[in-house]
Amino acid sequence: MSAKIYYDIDANLDVLKDKTIMFLGFGNQGAAQAQNLRDSGIPNEKIIVANRADSYAEDAKSKGFNVVSDFGAAAKDADVVFLLIPDQVQPRVFNTEVAPNLKDTAAIVVASGYNVFFKLLNFKPTQDVIMVAPRMIGSSVRSLYVKGKGFPCFISSEQDGTGKALEIALALSRAIGATKAGAIASSVREETAMDLFAEQALWPNVIMLFREAFSVLKEAGCSDEALCYEMWMSKEPAEIFERAAEDGFIQQLKHHSTVSQYGQLNGALNLDGSAMREHFKNILYNQVLNGKFCKEFSAIEEDLEKEGDANPLNVLYQKSEASELGQAEKRVRARLAGLL
Question: Tell me, what DSSP letter sits at residue 233?
Answer without folding.
Answer: I
